[in-house]
Amino acid sequence: MTTQSKSSRSYRPIIYIILLAGCLLTLIPFIWTILASFKTHAEIINPANQSFFPREFTTQNYETILTDPTLPLARIYFNSIYVAVSNVITQTFTSALFGYVFAKFHFRYKRLLFWYIVATMMIPFQLTMIPSYLILLQFNLTNNLLGLVILSWFNAFGIFLMRQFMINIPDELLDAARVDGANEWQIFMRIVLPQCGAILATFGVLVFISNWNAYLWPLIILRDVNVRTLPIILTWYNDQHTANLGIQMAASVLIVMPILVVYLIMNRWVVRGFALSGIKG
Amino acid sequence: MPDSNLTALMLYWGMISGFLGCGITPLIFDRKARNPWFGAVIGLAVGIISGQIFGRLILLLFSNAAPNLAPWLSLLGGLIGLIALWVLVPANKETRLNHRGFVAGTVTPMVFYLATLSVLPLLWAFVLAFFDYSPRRVGGPILGLGGENPFVGFEYFQMMLEGSGRDGRMFQNSLVNTLLFTALVLPLNMLITIPLAVMIESTGSRFKGFFRAVYFLPVVTSSVGVAIMWGYIFNTQYGLLNSAIRAVGGTPVAWLQDPSANILGIPTAMVAVVIAYLWQDFGYNLVIYIAALQGIPDSLKDAAKADGASPLQLFFYVTLPLLRPTILVTSVLTVISSFQVFDLIQVMTQGGPGRIGQTRVLVLEIYENAFRFERMGWAAAIAVVMFIFVAVLTLIQTRVLRTNWEY
Predict the structure, then answer these.
(1) Quick one: which of A1, A9, A75, B391 has the most CB atoms within 10 Å?
(2) Does the predicted TM-score (pTM) go above 0.80?
(3) Which pLDDT belongs to residue B2?
(4) How confident is the prediction for chain A on average, in pLDDT?
(5) Do A15 and B196 touch (CB under 8 A)?
């Protein structure tokens, strides 16, 4: 026993070195981007004069972006927050509600309906996006942020997750409330919802991140600059500044960093959520 | 908000009134000791019908007096019929309360929603695959099909199978690229994540959290951001990689632009997007493996250690076999998600380089055909083929998941 722990202890430094090297590799693209955003244009485009750290520190790139009249940055941050928060509110609410209904009530065709909802998880979005676009066209909701909200009221994974959780809420608790004269909506809002705060928060963070980073669907339906969300404004803006990498990198930093800050604050919940989900964001 | 477009308004009248009807009526029927499910169906019908009738009436009445307000007011049209229904339905004399209003009042709106915004698009996608459809052309009365958007039968699927014409070749190219991308991502991902997870799991708990947090950082990063960062690293003139190559005296490579540059026969552009994708994605599987490793009982490891197993033997003969179910699940998930790769490639290479596109993948092909060239029928047909691939993989996954695994 002692010899074994000694031999595994001798591996320790190597393991830490590998892991730290891995961390460095993971962080280098971020660091390189952040550093490049503080370099002058002249430095970036001079192949003979490349360096990892800026030779001449400048905030010119950020100033250019923040004062650019063609880029309503505050409006676009608002759009992204609006879409992500709306989706978090609707999806956490419907997931809790239908998780509860599927866990605690019996009705005809319940299994069929539940099976259908779970089956929608395996339908790739790329299949339904074309008809969904045609439907939004009929609703006059293309080029409108509402189009990013009304088609995703229900999250199949959320309903599934909440059902698994709600099954464990004791029936006696609900029956006691019924005897006391609470109606079913009151029971749901006052007894069931408060119990699933932690799991709803975990799920909510996942929904927030995936909506914040969503690219394909916003790209399809949002056409005007004013209604766009951050990821599509980033590609649009960079297409106009293909020659100026410093500005591109500064724009990336402005757009990528907020979510990383959210992540670093809520790190524990985010990681647990992704591990639970078995689906990718 | 709908302006004067009548079709859109009619849809709003139907949807909003339908929702109100089947959501609230069951509660009222329940209170009046009547069957709430019956109430849901009646409420849905009354809501939709009265929405159309009264919505139009309100629109006509107010269109002169308050043209801006009229569309908004007309949305409330359905309530006129519904309130009448709610007031007029007589209470049942036998007071038998069954408390089913809640279930009927929540499930029916959901079914209504799913039928219109989930089942319909699904079926529509399959139908579109058999038509030469473009939203610009005037089609027949049902979903704009027929007329100038003719039925083409299995022509699209035949084109894909035979690779005939430019479209067929483009499809086959994108399918091959997608398969190549997936075939590269899967093993590399596993080779990175499994040993890394084992190493992280073996460290002290304080560092474990730190490593996990850092390695997970790329997963939450926007894939557009990832594409731009890596696009800069692979940039021919100013990129980090070519700067490093120059520093050691090598010749720089046009990683993303040169169609003839390759590594072991794989185009460098493909290698670049695979690397960027791996970097963004590996933290996800890593977290799953760490969770799985924590589930392995210590007694097994202790027993192996007591028998004199070295750490490497421990890994190959104890840990790896026990991870098998997790490896299967993560493999299928990784395959499914890399099959649907889009953001990274659209931003980094736009499908290029080369004449037919060395990194053009299926979703890019679907996106460009549907929304750039407005050939939605052809795009839907490709999407159907992709769906079949993903569905088969998912079925395999559920089979794997259903098997009972025991340590």
Answers:
(1) B391
(2) yes
(3) 40
(4) 85
(5) no
Non-local CB neighbours of B296 within 8 Å, separated by 6+ positions: B319, B322, B323, B407
Query: What is the residue-averaged pLDDT of chain B?
Result: 86
- Taking the Cβ of residue B380 and every Cβ of chain A, the question of whether any pair is shorter than 8 Å is answered with yes
Pairing mode of beta strands B262-263, B266-267? antiparallel
CB atoms A127 and B383 under 8 Å: yes
Residue A112: CB atoms within 10 Å = 9
How deeply is B136 buried, as exposed, middle or buried, from its count of CB atoms within 10 A (0-12, 13-18, 19+)? exposed
Which pLDDT does position A91 carry in this prediction? Answer: 94
How many C-beta atoms lie closer than 10 Å to residue A277's C-beta? 20
pLDDT of amino acid B136? 81
Q: Which long-range contacts (CB under 8 A, 24 or more apart) does A164-170 make?
A: A164/A99, A165/A99, A165/A196, A165/A199, A166/A99, A166/A100, A166/A103, A166/A104, A166/A192, A166/A196, A167/A103, A167/A104, A169/A103, A169/A104, A169/A195
Record: contact B217-A30, CB cut-off 8 A: yes
User: Which of B264, B229, B269, B277 is CA-nearest to residue B253?
Assistant: B269
Please tell me the CATH code under which domain B155-402 is placed: 1.10.3720.10
The residues spanned by each domain of chain A are 2-64, 72-277
As annotated, the residues of chain B forming the CATH 1.10.3720.10 domain(s) are 155-402
The CATH class, in words, for A72-277 is mainly alpha
Which residues, given as ranges, of chain B have pLDDT below 70?
A: 1-4, 94-99, 397-398, 400-407
ipTM of the complex: 0.88
Min Cα distance B368 → chain A (Å) is 10
Picking from B349, B248, B252, B258, the residue whose alpha carbon sits closest to that of residue A47 is B252
Name the one residue in this structure whose structure tokens are 């705060």: A197
Say yes or no for a CB contact (<8 Å) between B103 and A15: no
Q: Which of B224, B279, B318 to mutate to test the interface with A (most CBs of A within 10 A)?
A: B224
Which residues in chain B touch residue A281, judged by CB atoms under 8 angstroms apart? 219-220
Residue A252, burial from CB neighbour count under 10 angstroms (0-12, 13-18, 19+): buried
Q: Which amino acid is at A204?
A: G
Q: A54: which 2 tokens?
A: 């800026």
Residues of B in contact with A1 (CB under 8 A): 305-306
For residue B287, list chain A residues with Cβ-Cβ distance below 8 A. 271, 274-275
**Neighbouring residues of B240: CB distance < 8 A, sequence distance ≥ 6:** A28, A32, A52, B232, B233
Helix (H, G, I), strand (E, B) or coil at B69: coil
- Best probe of the B interface among A37, A123, A271, by most B CBs < 10 A, is A271
Please state, in angstroms and rounded to a whole number, the distance separating the CA atoms of residues B131 and B124: 11
Pairwise CA distance, residues B311 & A122, whole Å: 39
Extract the tokens encoding B104: 């009927």
B124 at interface of A, judged by CB pairs closer than 8 A:
yes
Q: Between the CA of residue B90 and those of A254, B32, B49, B85, B105, what are the distances in Å?
A: 61, 7, 21, 10, 19
- Contact list in A for residue B342 (CB cut-off 8 A) is 126, 215-216
Q: Are A203 and A158 in contact (CB under 8 A)?
A: yes
CA distance B9 to B52: 9
**How many residues belong to chain B?**
407
Quote the Cα angle for B36-B40-B44, to 5°.
Answer: 165
